[in-house]
Amino acid sequence: MFEVMLKLKDFFNKNKKDYIRSFITMIASNLFSVFIPYLIGQLIDYIVQDELTYRLLIKVISAFLFSLIAAYIFEFIWSYYLFTGAAKLQRSMRDNLMAHFLNMRSIFFEKFRVGDLMARSTQDVRAIADTAGYGMMVLMNATLFLTTIVGMMGFSVSWRLTIFSLFPLIILAYTFDKLGNELEKRFSIAQESFSSLNNDVLEVVDGIRVIRAYVKEEDYLDKFRKQTESMLVKNNRVADINAMFMPFVKIITSICTVISFGYGTFLVYEGTLSVGNIVAFQMYLGMIIWPIISIGELTNVLRQGSAAMIRVEDVLNTTDEMEENGFKDIEDSNDIVMQNLNFQYPTSQEMNLSQINIEIPKGKTMGIVGKTGAGKTTLLRQFLRQYPLGDGDFFYGDDGVLDYQRNQIQHLIGYVPQDHILFSRSVRDNIAFGKGQASDQEILESIKIAAFDEDLLQMNKGLDTMIGEKGVSISGGQKQRISLARALIKNPEILILDDALSAVDAKTEQRIISNIQQVRTNKTTLISTHRLSAVKEADEIIVLEEGQIVEHGNHEELLALQGWYYKQYLRQELKEGDA
Ligand SMILES: Nc1ncnc2c1ncn2[C@@H]1O[C@H](COP(=O)(O)OP(=O)(O)OP(=O)(O)O)[C@@H](O)[C@H]1O
């Protein structure tokens, strides 16, 4: 149950000053609180023994008021330190998670769905922070308060009465433990259900147009209702256990009260205790209920925190299986060579790249073509290091790619993916994303190369036009060209276009390709495409089939081979002619 606290020990250590301050002020607050029943007990005994004077009454009342105010002030201080600590913990855990997400490559994101990651970064982190705030408060305060009250009961009233009266608490402790175990299991199940619900909401929001187009709203609503129903059941199962704690505490503390009255009255008759003692003892028993309830809640908070911690650790300990980062710096642009490279996706049943041998001299353009599913994107992903490298050799210059620091290679690359990813900001922001401080002049230049200049003229706010979430308010071809302009503004050493112009017409594509050729002399470019006219001018073209290079050469050489490239080219030429 306390493992979660142990796991947070680094955080507690780092903030130990705040926790020490909190602990000291808590002791002060408790001492002042337990002093109050003692004063009342004294007052009753003065009355019963007819010893109360006006001066004595003023003294007791002043001490009473002073204790009350002091207890309140100290309580404010310890609460402040504890709960700001919990907020700090949430912040640092979320920062850690975000840093981890940003560091991870594809394999990691294939293991967790987005909604699940969101659930873990929000609800689970909050449950863990509750252990550092509320949990820690209860752990320190309730145990401290309980010890102080029990001490006062024993020392100022009677140890015998205290031990007899509090005996039933053993049953309570045992029950707390059993219920806590069950609670941890049920909480974990409820959280998984929340993750899955999150995923479904995201999927619906993302796919709303397709859902509407296929008139599937009712089906989805039905499915969603079933899920919320199942989540309700799972949350109710958590609530059931939570609800059992309070009545149980009340029953047990009532038994304690009955014992204390019975045995206390006997002790008064015996002459061992005064009436004031019994009243003070009852007040102490009344005060004990809160810490006991809190310890019950502490069990809940710790169990839930522990289940949440397992879920967050699961994310943080899952890696993307990438190789260790290299240490070399890239000093100059260089040739790229792949020798006998084989690659298989972790979830794939077959090789996805086999015996790839390519050489791309610095500044040259390579075209990558082939049927759908032939392995074009897979090959480009090796350059982007989205997956671990396959077997074989992959050199940049004289050194293996793995020898270099990963982010240095990344800095060399400008990438235009097949599924263009745009942010819900302005055209300017989306393009400037490719280069830290881009001037409007540079943005307009890259727009021109990407053949987006005429489209921009039609946009009412020009560069400031907002493109909507994921670019909903612009066309597919416009998205592709903004995405291309973003890569071009970086003027990267290696430009990778992955079927990046599929949504623009052949004429515009021609214009873009010839613009790229003009501005990218001496820079390496890789173009994967279905439209062969886009790679006609490339220095080298490879044809992939089932992950293997089946043809290679320049355009003329490939035509002369009269293989797949030749047939495909003729077919496309015919189509273009018809259009
Ligand atoms: N993440 C993945 N995990 C497992 N298999 C994958 C993954 N991505 C792609 N594949 C498989 O690898 C093979 C090559 O896919 P790839 O996307 O590289 O083809 P492609 O030539 O780019 O196709 P297209 O022209 O349709 O984009 C396919 O059989 C595909 O199913």
From TrEMBL:
Name its cellular compartments: Cell membrane
One Pfam entry name: ABC_tran
Q: Which GO terms describe its cellular component?
A: plasma membrane
UniProt-listed InterPro entries: AAA+_ATPase, ABC1_TM_dom, ABC1_TM_sf, ABC_transporter-like_ATP-bd, ABC_transporter-like_CS, P-loop_NTPase, Type_1_exporter
Q: Where is the ABC transporter domain?
A: 336-571
Transmembrane segment boundaries: 20-40, 60-83, 127-151, 157-176, 247-269, 281-302
Q: Which SMART domains match?
A: AAA
Membrane disposition: Multi-pass membrane protein
Which residues does the UniProt record annotate as the domain ABC transmembrane type-1? Answer: 22-304
- Output one GO MF annotation: ATP binding
Keywords on this record? ATP-binding, Cell membrane, Membrane, Nucleotide-binding, Transmembrane, Transmembrane helix, Transport
Question: Which protein is depicted?
Answer: ATP-binding cassette, subfamily B
